[in-house]
From TrEMBL:
InterPro entries: Poly_Biosynth_Transport (IPR050833), Polysacc_synth (IPR002797). It is found in: Cell membrane. It comes from the Bacteria. It holds the Pfam family Polysacc_synt. This is RfbX. It comes from Proteiniphilum saccharofermentans. GO terms for cellular component: plasma membrane. It is a multi-pass membrane protein.
Amino acid sequence: MAGGMKSLAKETFFYGIGSVLPKLLSWLLSLYWAFALPEVSDIGVLTNFYAWVALLQVILTYGMETGFFRYANKENDPVRVFSTTFISIAFTTLLFFLAALLLLEPAAFALGGAAMKPHYLLMLVIILCFDVLGAIPFANLRFKKRPIRFAVIKLVNVVLTILFNLFFFLGCPWLQTLFPDAFSWFDISRGVDYVLISNLAASVIQFLMVSPELKIRFTFDRVLLRQMLRYSFPILILGVAGILNQTVDKIIFPWVYPDEAAAFTELGIYGQNFKIAVIMVMFTQAFRYAFEPFIFARNKGAAGDRRSFSDATKFFIIFGLLIFLMTTGYIDIIKKLIPESYHVGLKVVPIVLLGELFFGIYFNLSLWYKLTDQTRWGAYMSIFGFIVTIVINILFIPRFGYMACAWASFIANLAMMLVSYFLGQKNYPIPYNLRSAGFFFLLSMILFAGITLTYNNIPELWLRLLINTVLIMLYIFVVVKKELPLRELPVIGKKLRIKN
């Protein structure tokens, strides 16, 4: 047992490095683009592109990663499962590539009119195809319990992407001054091209690094594939609905916004300010790594375990609200991560932060359908959230622009959280401490009102930061006093007990 837990901890550590650290580095790179690219509309184009990539990756893998794990562990011949899965993915990816080539120009125009150049779309399609083809080999690394190789390849991919970007946006301008003839091809106004070329080169190298997993004797089992497709189809629906909840606003914005010429500029402003709120997303993902194994490791149904689930959710809310207050309280510093031309969109940050906090709470509440094997409810609620999101966006983007996107995320995640709570209490009652959650939410909103007043009425930066620090420390003091008694804390509690 101890050996198994040690192995699990090791794998979780390396998979965490291979998943979270690349996302953090990619986040920092995407913030850098706003400084490197000459036009705000360029950021809008990239925001739209990568929203499409996230959606199409889910569609083109159609739940087969999960299907591979299910049947590789179930069948006696995991190589046959891997081979069948990869052949299926490769065939559908080839069909997608050929269709994209045939429809390249009309598809580019449909996505963004004159602002969307066909060669942008071509590079994006090639990037997507290489990433999709690598999905099952990466899954095979996880199946074979090779977390170090998995993490190394993922890290190399993002490091190369960053280095290629730095070459184009820092190296080439400097080299152009030294060797103007040799670097006459470089044109900073083609910044989107250089971002996509960097991504393409890194994706190709990543696929080559994972390609040794393809050194097998390929076989294809039609009966097995049909079984896997039946198993994976509900996962596809759940995945599409889930990713659309996060990306549909960025996908449809250029179609719905009434001023076509300004659509990508407005989307660029929204996209960069949305990235500030990703701080909350990273907290949610980090919590997920710890929380999901925790809930499945507990003895289902025990009263003490349900109390543990309640406490875990309570502290998630408390620390999530602390992140909300720290982000908004120090927004004067955090906004330096994006150029001043984007600061007009900072008003979306508190809305998106709270929306992401609601989504994190929804994830915590979702354990009821996981522990009762009613996972279909996850699909139902994702579809419900998607419908709320797209309706609000279509109705209100024409009038309110990207503010409608922020409020759509807020309302949809709030609605999913509330629906999941009430259904969960009916199917798997857990004694959540609503009084505590309500108290800290109300306290944080009062303190946020104070932060907003300082931001709008006090011109001196140092004084704003000082007042906001006092407000944040007040929240921390109340948390420690009410929920974290000093006697129960390590070291401090021991000293207090010795003193008494």
